[in-house]
Amino acid sequence: MNIKTRSSLKFSTALLAGLAFLSPLSRAATFVLTEATTQDINAAFDAGALTSEKLTELYLARIAAYDQTGPRVNAVIHLNAKALAEARALDVERKAKGPRSPLHGVPVLVKDNFDTFDMPTTGGALALKGAIPAHDAFMVKKLREAGAVLIAKSNMDEMARGGNGVSSLGGQTLNPHAPGLIPGGSSAGTGAGVAAVYAPVGLGTETGGSVRHPANDTNIVGMVATEGLLSRAGIMPISMSQDRGGPMTLSVYDTAVMLTVMAGIDPNDQITRLGIGQKPSAHYESFLKPDSLKGKRLGVLRDLFKSGPDHEPYNKLIEEAIAVMKKAGAVVVDPVSTGTDLFAMTQGQSLGNYEYKASFNAYMLARGPGQPVSSLAELIASGKYHPRLKENYERSEAITPMDLNAEYAGKYRNRAALKKVLEDLLVKFDLDAFVYPVRSGPLPAAGTWPLPPGVSGQSVSDYCGLPAITVPAGFTPDGTPNGLEIMGAAFADATVLQIAFGYEQATKLRKLPALTPPLPGETINY
């Protein structure tokens, strides 16, 4: 092809593209910030109707209107002062080179126990106020490489030790759907912030349900991938055996996008060796189809349902969810059971108290020089932490070394036993996944401490490392959000996402909190 012919073709293509843009039938669209997924954002970017700078301004306006003023959700602990400058630079790059990924120019809310080299990482503790680590956490680094804008760090239960969203540095985060009740924890700020649409996506962490519980309690999507798929390096730890980080988002699609970007082998976290060869060659979002539920075999894990009048409104939502999935073509096997009391089997099985001192001390050493404290002992000596954590810290500091602790060894072995029981059940009934409630009872009042036993919801996935996702299942008559949880086999993360996406698309039960309504300028017609 000669240059003249190539130029003519370019002109014709450009003319057709221009005509298509002018056609209201083919290109007319409406962008609604509070409903937008990354697909919607990128469509508006591509049409020239939106820039990353403008998008970031819109999210910052919501933070300004609702976080420390108005309803005072208190989900943000540190704003990124350079967010708009970073967004402008990414707009320039998009024009010159095209987008790096679907997250190019998209703001992300980051829990304040993920290391960020340019912002404080405090875990919500006064002892670490203003302290900046030397490097990004691996997952944060992957997000930056994908072109994401880190808009803010989010409040949390201090050092991730708790389930009601309070820290000595950040105070109490509110549940934007039910401000008198806990927002879930410990990823309370990310859950409340994403629910209030401070960003479409965010990062949380969990050791005992702390991604899925606040996602459930604030009516958003939350997922923990198979243990080993995502690196934990640079995350302020509790337990080297149970900790996982994961996406908290407004949609299953965006959860899949986040997983595609963040999954990878990290030499600084040996557990990611389990993920070698396990990440599919195609992007996780490519597995999400309109008929994703058709033919999927789902086992209703009745072991994780509670009975009694307090639990009926919550169980009813899950029963309705199961009916929806069956109508959409899923094969429902009901009931399935492990033959044991899973609540009793997992009660008191957390390894956090045993592993916390060693995990935290190693983490602080890796943060680099100039940190206010370098060990758990120094943190305790500083006195700069929430008083409710004093006993917890002191118990962890005094605990017998792990290799000499028989109780710890027994609980550690129970993790493998639980995983085998569940995976054997998946094989026995030829299941793609289990379905069950995240929690099936009323939320405690905000500020309740300690939380009553069993109130925090089940944490089965954390005790076996299998992938699990929660998706909004609606609201009880008193307006409390509740979610459906889906758990699959190890490294069947794409299948878990498919099932969640199929259910989400059949129901669309996420709502914007009444406390944080749309603001002027958030709807763009183009």
Folded structure, characterized:
The chain is 35% helix and 14% strand. It has 526 residues and is an alpha/beta fold. It has a single domain (52-516), classed as Alpha-Beta Complex (Amidase signature (AS) enzymes). The chain has an eleven-stranded mixed β-sheet, sandwiched between helices. A hairpin with a 5-residue loop joins strand 13 (468-475) and strand 14.
Furnish the topology, listing elements before pairings.
Elements: H1 3-22, H2 24-27, E1 30-32, H3 38-46, H4 52-66, E2 76-79, H5 83-97, E3 107-111, H6 138-145, E4 149-154, E5 166-167, E6 171-172, H7 188-195, E7 201-206, H8 212-217, E8 221-224, E9 244-249, H9 252-262, E10 297-301, H10 312-327, E11 331-336, H11 342-346, H12 352-366, H13 376-382, H14 390-398, H15 406-428, E12 433-437, E13 468-475, E14 481-487, H16 493-507, E15 523-525
Helix pairs in contact: 4-5, 9-16, 12-14
Mean pLDDT: 93
- CATH top level assignment: Alpha Beta
Which regions have little confidence, pLDDT < 50, spanning 5+ residues? 1-26
Q: Got a strand count?
A: 15
Number of separate structural domains: 1
Provide the β-strand percentage band.
5-15%
CATH architecture: Alpha-Beta Complex
Class based on secondary structure composition and strand pairing: alpha/beta
Question: How would you concisely characterize the structure shown here?
Answer:
With about 525 residues, the chain is of the alpha/beta class.
Which features would summarize this protein structure in a list?
single chain, 526 residues, alpha/beta, Amidase signature (AS) enzymes, 11-stranded mixed beta sheet, two-stranded antiparallel sheet, 14% strand, disordered N terminus
